[in-house]
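Title: Comparing notes on inverse folding

I've been comparing how different people in this forum approach sequence design from structure. To keep things fair, I'm posting one structure and asking everyone to reply with a full sequence. Here's the target:
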C-alpha cells in the first residue's frame, strides 16, 4: 500500500485496510454487548469501541478521497457499515434492549438496497450514496451509542428509542429514494 493515487481496480489500499479492520474488530464489540448483565446496562468500554469503529468510517472515506476511490472500496465500505450497525443492533435485540421490528425493517431495507445496487452495477447503472443516506447512518449509529451509553442506557431509554425510530423513518425514506432515483437513472441511460 502506497501513498500515491490508486488505480480504480486496486484492492490493497489504506482505505480498504481501515474498512477490513472495522469488519474484523466488529465481533469483539458484539461480544461485549451480549456479555452485559442486565438488558438496560450500558458500558463505557463498548461505547468507546463503538465510537472508534463508527468513526473509522470517516477515516477510510478521507483516505479514499485523498488517494483515490476504488471499485473494491465502493463495495467494501457500505458492507462494513452494514455489518457493524446491524450486528450491534441484533446484539441489542438479543439482550432485550432494542425491539425486533425496527431492526428487521432496517435490515430489510439495507439488504434490498445492497442487492439492488449490486444488480444495477452489473447493468452499468451507478447508484451513488445520497446525503440523506449519510444522515440515516448517523441516526442508526446514534441509536446504538445511546443504548450503550451508561447514562442513557437505563435512565433515559427514550433517547435511544427515539433515535432508533428516527433511524427507521430515515431508512425507509432513503430506501424509497434509492429505488425511485435509480429507476429514473436507468430509464435515462436506456434512452440515451
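Reply #1:
Here's my take.
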Amino acid at each position: 500500500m502506497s501513498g500515491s493515487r490508486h488505480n480504480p481496480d486496486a484492492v490493497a489500499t489504506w482505505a480498504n485496510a481501515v474498512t477490513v479492520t472495522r469488519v474484523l474488530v466488529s465481533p469483539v464489540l458484539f461480544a461485549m454487548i451480549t456479555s452485559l448483565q442486565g438488558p438496560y446496562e450500558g458500558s463505557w468500554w463498548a461505547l468507546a469501541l463503538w465510537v472508534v469503529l463508527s468513526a473509522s468510517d470517516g477515516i477510510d472515506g478521507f483516505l479514499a478521497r485523498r488517494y483515490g476511490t476504488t471499485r473494491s472500496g465502493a463495495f467494501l465500505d457500505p458492507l462494513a457499515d452494514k455489518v457493524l450497525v446491524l450486528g450491534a443492533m441484533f446484539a441489542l435485540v438479543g439482550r432485550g434492549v432494542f425491539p425486533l421490528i425496527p431492526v428487521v425493517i432496517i435490515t430489510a431495507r439495507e439488504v434490498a438496497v445492497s442487492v439492488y445496487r449490486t444488480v444495477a452495477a452489473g447493468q452499468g447503472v451507478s447508484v451513488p450514496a445520497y446525503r440523506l443516506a449519510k444522515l440515516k447512518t448517523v441516526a442508526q449509529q446514534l441509536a446504538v451509542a445511546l443504548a450503550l451509553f451508561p447514562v442513557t442506557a437505563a435512565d433515559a431509554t427514550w433517547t435511544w428509542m427515539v433515535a432508533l425510530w428516527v433511524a427507521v423513518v430515515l431508512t425507509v425514506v432513503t430506501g424509497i429514494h434509492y429505488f425511485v432515483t435509480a429507476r429514473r437513472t436507468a430509464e435515462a441511460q436506456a434512452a440515451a
